[in-house]
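[Q] Does anyone have a clean structure-token version of this?
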Amino acid sequence: MRAATIAVLAPGLLALLPLAIAQVYPVTQGKTYKFEKVADGVYYATGGFGSNNVVIVNDQDVLLVDDGTTPAAARAFLDDIKVITNKPVRTVVNTHFHYDHTDGNSVFGPEVQIIAHDYVRMAITTFDVLNREPFITSQKTAVPARIDALTKQIATEKDTQKKAALQRDLAAAQTSLNQLKEIKPTPPNVTYSSKMVLYKGPREIQLLFLGRGHTGGDTVVFLPRERIVCTGDLMESRLAYMGDAFFDEWVTTLGALKNLDFALVLPGHGAPFGDKGLITAFQGYLSDITKKVADLRAQGLTADQAATRVDLTSHAKDFPQITGPGADARGVRRIYAWMDERGKK
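[A] Here you go.
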């Protein structure tokens, strides 16, 4: 594939620093994934189904940070990696246990080390991850619902061109459903508890557990020489899913993240950024949603009622996805459960 260039903002996001100069990274386009070369041998992979991933090409082999939503997505990812290197993938790091970062694990053979925090192995082996959030809402019910809706639209659509487009969408949705059926939750085969350091030729790769946050076992992948940190969903450039969060600890963990000497964040969703002010802004959001939901709970509201009422619009300048009052009900339910857990201590 022919390389191109695109602009991504580093440091900072355009919404936060409208006058900043965008950093231009070379891009190689695969069939599904786009690879932005952010440093020598380091690529930010986007455009696939699920998480944004990172490809680290070393002297002898390749390390991946996360691997996608389904085995089919992981295979497409591996096929596209061939446009940037012919070296074998020998290591995969799962930043946390959620399906969109780990459900490609099953495509790798025994020669590949799949590394994650101890908590990730525990979660995948004991949580029945395909029958809990976030998989249920995002995949298990969403894809069949879309198939049903498209089928009904096709039955009533009179315009030939619109009907053909709907039929293409339906075929894609049915393919997605078949791919979901192929998933076999596969835990990591190597785990660590606080820190693991890998040396790949001259490259040092640190796997760090800075504390609980987005989940109970988030890994940050830190490249000290390149001053790059891969954060999974511990820190995105947008609001993250909060259904498994530890809210006060998350704020503290983000403080530890800011203490690392990095110039660029490669998040599990969103876009690369370099402004630590965005991390501070997210800490403020976490503290605010926790306090405001606690206040609504004290008024006797259920979690779902609080989710429609909580007003976080003051954070819209940092997180433009906020367009009015309300928050993801799954996150608010988790705040209620988290407060219950704290009350039992």
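[Q] Thanks! Anything notable?
[A] The domain at 1-192 is CATH 3.60.15 (Metallo-beta-lactamase; Chain A).
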